[in-house]
């Protein structure tokens, strides 16, 4: 295995030349063929990246030197690739791919139990509402998926979420609901998370006499859930080989199964399964998650971009960038390698919002803002859905036109010469023309889904999961732990204990002054 600093520096050297994205379409006649990939309903167009065939070849050579294929085999065979926690990583087994016979048997049994439970609740009619309580990976996936399922599936029970420890979160979740008709689903892999336990307690006390009968739990810590007071027969398990941010496919998705039905959830799993098989079986150069990961490495380590925007042109995918923030930044936002050395540049900041809304906010910066990246602004992943699920053809056409126009505008820009021509002679021409010029040559990828079906959504999420894995291998970080969240959690507990005891503790002057504000 070659040293990552050397390998990634070679990518920086390769990228250190001016590439004109628009010119690549002439220079590389088969560019669309080479830079567009499809898996089922998902098409990915990487042709508007500032990456040419030579750059792509360098990236693929580098990936091979990182033993990517060996790591991929280890992942699917259930080796403990989460080395710092000594765990396998097998969220794919929840979709029926990879893992041991034992993993397969536990998954099959749990899937059956969830489907039976969901069917029973749906048929019984006693419950009209679900309050899903959880945070991070126990919230973002289910919330994103619930929004997206709305495009094509029918929600049979009202589904609300309580995640933040801010009392507004739980208050909003239970507002207007009848405890007798509400099922509380407390979801926590560890069952040690402050926010979830506090929200669980508050909902239990709101449930009153239904506090026991109307509360179930989903966890990898059964003893913790039972200790919290959930009846053992109401606990749904998952396993330490399912990372929190990769857990929506497990019993963490139980609320979704109850609200939308087990068949809808099964389609979602099948979509991810197709992407798993693609990732597992396709050679690196034809592999969609690998391509996406390498494009990201090019932008980060080659062109020096510190952030990556993700803009879904779909209201129903509005939580996608928040979901990816956890998936990518909690997985690869690290500065130590697997063996404890200092890493090279790793995960960029992931950010974004739904289109077209973002166009009226931060797109100014995307088109003309300065940044450390070679061509300015930030690389963008556009995500669009081709089918109109809203029965509003005019709206849908406008939505898609905006999406496609933005990637074209980012690439082509508008030269000062054209601007000057348009402005004609005027006294302020020299001052105004540069302000109205668009530099262009700003990279983007456009992902399209034929429709926003559960199956297509499964493809999309699994694509980013595998992208994240590949980048972690190239950066040589463990993508499956999250030590960086511990320190703040410990300090919050100390500060809360001290505030409750009326003590000021041993803190810096600023923190002490803040604590005194609430005395
Ligand atoms: O704070 C980070 C984190 O540990 C995430 O990794 C996880 O998804 C979230 O907290 C919630 O954890 P749990 O499911 O154990 O409550």
Automatic annotation (TrEMBL):
Pfam families: PGI. The active site is at 330 (proton donor), 360, 489. One of its GO terms (cellular component) is cytosol. CDD domains: SIS_PGI_1 (cd05015), SIS_PGI_2 (cd05016). It comes from the Bacteria. It is an enzyme of class 5 (isomerase). Keywords: Cytoplasm, Gluconeogenesis, Glycolysis, Isomerase. InterPro entries: G6P_Isomerase (IPR001672), G6P_Isomerase_C (IPR023096), Phosphoglucose_isomerase_CS (IPR018189), SIS_dom_sf (IPR046348), SIS_PGI_1 (IPR035476), SIS_PGI_2 (IPR035482). It catalyses: alpha-D-glucose 6-phosphate = beta-D-fructose 6-phosphate. One of its GO terms (biological process) is glucose 6-phosphate metabolic process. Pathway: Carbohydrate degradation; glycolysis; D-glyceraldehyde 3-phosphate and glycerone phosphate from D-glucose: step 2/4; Carbohydrate biosynthesis; gluconeogenesis. Its main location: cytoplasm. Catalyzes the reversible isomerization of glucose-6-phosphate to fructose-6-phosphate. Belongs to the GPI family. PANTHER family: GLUCOSE-6-PHOSPHATE ISOMERASE (PTHR11469). This is Glucose-6-phosphate isomerase. It comes from Litorimonas cladophorae.
């Amino acid at each position: 295995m070659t040293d990552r600093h050397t390998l990634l520096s070679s990518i920086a050297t390769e990228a250190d030349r001016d590439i004109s994205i628009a010119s690549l379409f002439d220079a590389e006649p088969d560019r669309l063929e080479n830079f567009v990939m499809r898996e089922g309903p998902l098409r990915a167009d990487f042709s508007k990246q500032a990456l040419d065939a030579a750059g792509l070849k360098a990236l693929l050579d580098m990936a091979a030197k990182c033993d990517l294929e060996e790591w991929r085999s280890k992942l699917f065979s259930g080796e403990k690739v989460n080395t710092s926690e000594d765990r396998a990583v097998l969220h794919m087994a929840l979709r029926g791919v990879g893992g041991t016979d034992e993993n397969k048997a536990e998954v099959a049994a749990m899937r059956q139990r969830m489907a039976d439970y969901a069917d029973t609740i749906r048929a019984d009619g006693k419950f009209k509402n679900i309050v899903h309580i959880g945070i991070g990976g126990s919230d973002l996936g289910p919330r994103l998926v619930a929004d997206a399922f709305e495009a094509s599936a029918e929600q049979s029970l009202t589904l609300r979420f309580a995640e933040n420890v801010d009392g507004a979160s739980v208050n909003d979740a239970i507002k207007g609901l009848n405890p007798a008709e509400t099922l509380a689903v407390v979801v926590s892999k560890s069952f040690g998370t402050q926010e979830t336990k506090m929200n669980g307690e508050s909902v239990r006390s709101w449930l009153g006499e239904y506090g026991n009968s109307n509360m179930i739990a989903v966890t990898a810590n059964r003893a913790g859930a039972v200790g919290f007071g959930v009846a053992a027969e109401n606990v749904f398990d998952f396993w330490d080989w399912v990372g929190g941010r990769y857990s929506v496919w497990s019993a963490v998705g139980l609320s979704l199964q109850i609200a939308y039905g087990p068949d809808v959830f099964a389609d979602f799993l099948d979509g991810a399964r197709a992407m798993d098989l693609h990732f597992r079986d396709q050679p690196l150069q034809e592999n969609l998650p690998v391509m996406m990961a390498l494009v990201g490495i090019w932008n980060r380590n080659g062109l020096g971009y510190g952030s990556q925007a993700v803009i879904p042109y779909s209201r129903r995918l509005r939580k996608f960038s928040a979901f990816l923030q956890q998936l990518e930044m909690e997985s690869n936002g690290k500065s130590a390698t697997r063996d404890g050395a200092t890493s090279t540049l790793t995960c960029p900041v992931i950010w974004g919002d739904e289109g077209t809304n973002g166009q009226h906010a931060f797109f100014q910066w995307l088109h003309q803002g300065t940044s450390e990246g070679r061509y300015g602004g930030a690389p963008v992943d556009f995500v669009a859905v081709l089918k109109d699920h809203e029965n509003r053809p005019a709206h849908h056409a406008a939505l898609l036109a905006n999406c496609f126009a933005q990637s074209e505008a980012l690439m082509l820009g508008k030269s000062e010469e054209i601007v000057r021509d348009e402005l004609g002679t005027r006294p302020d021409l020299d001052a105004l023309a540069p302000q109205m010029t668009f530099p262009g040559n700003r990279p983007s990828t456009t992902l399209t889904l034929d429709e926003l079906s559960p199956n297509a959504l499964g493809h999309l999420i699994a694509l980013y999961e595998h992208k994240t894995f590949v980048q972690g291998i190239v950066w040589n970080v463990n993508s499956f732990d999250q030590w960086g969240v511990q320190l703040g959690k410990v300090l919050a507990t100390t500060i809360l204990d001290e505030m409750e005891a009326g003590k000021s503790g041993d803190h810096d002057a600023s923190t002490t002054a803040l604590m005194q504000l609430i005395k």
